[in-house]
Amino acid sequence: MTPSPRERIIEGAYSCVARYGLAKTTVEDAAREARVSRATVYRYFPGGKQQLIRETIGWEASRFFERLMQAVEGSADFATLLERALLFAHRAVADHAVLQKILQTEPETLLPELTIESHRLLALIKAFLLPPMQRDPDITPGLDQERAVDHVARLLLSFIGSPGRWDLEDPVQVGELVRTELLAGLTTPADG
Amino acid sequence: MAAIALAEVVTADPGAPLAGFQPMGLNHQEARIIDATLRCIARWGMGKTTLDDIARQSGYSRATVYRIFPGGKEGLVERVASVEIARFFGAVAQRMAAADSLEELLVVGIAEVSRRLRDHEALQFVMAHEPEVILPKLAFSHQDEVLSAATAFAAPYLARWLGDEDAARAAEWVARIVLSYTSNPADDVDMGDEESVRRLVRAFVLPGLVTSIPASV
Lengths: 192, 217
Fold this sequence. Notes:
CATH topology of chain B: Tetracycline Repressor, domain 2
Largest interface: A-B, 36 and 36 residues
Helix content of chain A: over 70%
Strand content of chain A: under 5%
CATH superfamily of chain B: Tetracycline Repressor, domain 2
Shape of chain B: elongated
Number of helices of chain B: 11
Number of domains of chain B: 1
Number of strands of chain B: 0
Largest sheet of chain A: none
Number of domains of chain A: 2
Strand content of chain B: under 5%
Radius of gyration of chain B: 18 Å
CATH architecture of chain B: Orthogonal Bundle
Number of strands of chain A: 0
Structural class of chain A: mainly alpha
Distance between the termini of chain B: 38 Å
Oligomer: heterodimer
Shape of chain A: elongated
Order of helices and strands of chain A: HHHHHHHHH
Structural class of chain B: mainly alpha
Order of helices and strands of chain B: HHHHHHHHHHH
Largest sheet of chain B: none
CATH class of chain B: Mainly Alpha
Radius of gyration of chain A: 19 Å
């Protein structure tokens, strides 16, 4: 599968951002990296650098979400799916060299973009979580499912960004977190 | 400013005792200049507000502003942040101290915090137009710092109904919920409205706490 020019440009921009950071990456750099002309970049991204950077961040966020979906595929139930999602995403954020570098060096540029992006991610995560939540027999009948899935998706995003007092490397703690906080009100606790 | 100040208090003094959150005594001149600074930031933002603007808004001369706040604009903004955080925590503490049940504590605490964040004109201007000034203090590892400050503040109130360990856990959990719904509002939840918050608390928070109420209560 040959990537489209558009994808090649975004991939090129991403490599440049990884190397030079957000501020120093130019449209010329991305064009050179993608082996297209500067005019071609502007044809696909008429908004220039700002649009290119924004879409590059969105592209990487989508890739992150796809990896997350793959990591939780085949989970036996909703609780297991949430545990696997937290374990995977926490590690993926910590190990994401480009994200960590830019968070250190250019948080003032990255974070406003990531905030916009997080609204889109929240919608994607909700859509992804709803079917497995609905299928799970342990979910309390009669629950307002739209409300519940929005709430769970918010907590998931919150913990992915900031683990707080929880050690999200530890599957035992992650299991407890999912049971006590993410699923509070969604299931009737068996040990209550 | 409250959220900025929240992060700053933690960065400046990680073990800040609750006494630091009490409203501080400001004299009339200080109060007027601080109020003028907030009005300027709400209108023009942090970047564009000058000391001259603040002097004009307060009705004092530039020299008087300098005499009262010798740190210049930067020092003044820091002072405004710490005054705002004291007001914020003072007002929230007052509401929370009056709660007579765990549900009431959660409902009034969450709604009061959310309203104060939402209605804070200077904070909202900065969030909308200068997010680069504030978000680096609120995201990823810095959100952990905000969460730990919020936990230190709220846990003693929750400990009236929960064990100490559960109170700290619940405080952080609720702080996350507030941050998420205030920074990215849901269509069907009004965090400033106590009945809307009550529905949220009953649906998703109390069910996670009921089992941890000590048997003796």
